[in-house]
């Protein structure tokens, strides 16, 4: 028994040591053009083909719901649960008062994968890939505390395992590539989800009850189109920031001063 406890303690110490090691700036992504093209193709393979989207889309859903949760916390609301499902739907449950707080919380779902994607692109090109991995690993473990359904538990545990395996085994040279690929895939996923919710409002109106824009419209009185446009604005700005970061970094790689 004592040996088992010691093994757990040793593992915890090693895990935290690897997590803490990520909170330092490392070398920026330095890849030739052909590698950058391959990273872009890998990102598109994660987020475009239907078979791959079936799985990567679950990660986008988790980021979506964590966006709601973080927004709720910034207003003083209390997060009581997160539900995730295999069909890429989900829900974040929070308690608190105030229409403005509820609207703020409801808004930050669809745009957040794009915001996180842009942040990951920036991290990859500026030497913070290990920080992105460490923060993601911790957040996914914390998320487990708020999951309230079986499908959500399976999704969250699976993502947490993948994240922790990367913390322990991913070589440093791989981190920049992986961070950039995931960042681009999240940006594409955000656009894909936005197009999907637009189609709900235009062609599949029987599903309106699941749309954040529709729920926000009911709560605030503002038309759903206003909220859809707000989502689009943040997603477009995130894509522009990511593209600007990549363009600047690639220019420096191609034309060093």
Automatic annotation (TrEMBL):
The chain crosses the membrane at residues 28-49, 55-79, 100-122, 128-147, 154-171, 177-195, 226-250. The keyword Transport does not apply. Signal peptide: none annotated. Keywords: Membrane, Transmembrane, Transmembrane helix. It comes from the Bacteria. It holds the Pfam family Peptidase_M50B. This is Peptidase M50B-like. It comes from Crystallibacter crystallopoietes.
